[in-house]
Amino acid sequence: MTAFVGGGLGYRRAHRAALLGAGPGPALLEVMPEHFFAAPADIDALADRYPLVFHSVGLSVGTAVADVAGDDVTRAQLARVRDLARRARPLYVSDHLAFTRAPGGIDLGHLCPLPCTEETYALVAARVRSWHDRLGVPIALENIAHPFRWPGDTMTEASFFRRLVAETGCGLLLDVTNLLYDARNFGGCPAALLEEYPLDAVWGVHLAGGVRGPDAFWIDSHDHPVDEEAFALLERLRGRSPIQALIVERDSRLPTMGELAGEARRAAQVLETA
Amino acid sequence: MMRELARLQDALAAVVTGAAHEADATPLAGLSGDDVARYARGLRRKRWQEVARSLPLSARVIVGLEARYDRWLCAHPPVACDGVLPPGLAEASRALADLTRGLGADPGEASWAADLLAFEVAAGCARADGGRRELRARHAVHEIAAELRVGLVPVDPPLAPHAYVFEGSAMRWRRLP
To answer: Does this model's pTM top 0.95?
Structure first.
């Protein structure tokens, strides 16, 4: 198991020159493999300079099709991710506990929660094992910010994850901000909710900042600095989780690379402070 | 095995993408309509943001483009397909023919709006996948784009047909008779 590498950033092309320039960069990078499907060699300079973790958004682990690896798109993308992983050697490959494509072929284009049922669990567990065999890299899944809850859930997401990490050996990519917004949107104490997750299987942490919508619903929009309450929750992980990578995510209203790296360093210090 | 989950996923996808007439929404009976509507709005907004990020000039100066795309999206639910283009460019390519046709037929839009949209899609796709794209335009779109980049908005530029070839980050053009 890799020790804690430090605070890193989600790679965005706008920061490429700064990341590869002479100045100091973050401790590691999280890259979306989809960004390199068209030009795989573009990842080499990043892999030469930084430890990497892969974070995919399109593998759609929960699409209910019979093939154990997933639908046609998933299988094609897995082959590309495998090739990229061979050249860039990421610490792990992650995606979300969600689906982005329906079995009938409609592409949602974004994450949709899965009902937490035995049927879903069997599908996801088998798929995680299949992906691990295909990719040859450790697999982690992330908790999403739920836009809604399925009424037929027979277990909590936290208990789904506890079982999944125990039975498949995969890791949890814990998005602290998603968890915080779930608590705000659906009720409950964020710290208590955090304690329900398998903290001894947290390989990676995501932090971001979002917005409160006009209907008072918090949206994980990745366009603001990290929510201060997320920093406070992060303290609860100190010394309790085998975290390898702590990633600050920002998709729009991008500040400089240096500013984001500063946020990542601050977050890493929260975990490292004795 | 998985039949119930598949039914749920197909029903939800159909409802939130506007393809509900093709599916049975009964499995969603327990879901809050407000939650599903908010989620559907979020999906559409996210798709537009990805498209807009890929087409910065068009998104900025073609005032009705977002509403036009939104109407188009409701009538054309996205279909899963494999590819290497970023999602915004892939989606812009999917919508391009209908959007340019609509822009070209709308007297309220700038005469060069459709050309600019096609220009940005072709250039962006070539840059993203290194492939070759060709475009015939009624205007000198490279000049219009250059003016837009420095904050100028061309007013009634003369017709000046051009042929463009995009390969990777390179662009060549020639004036057509």
So the answer is: no
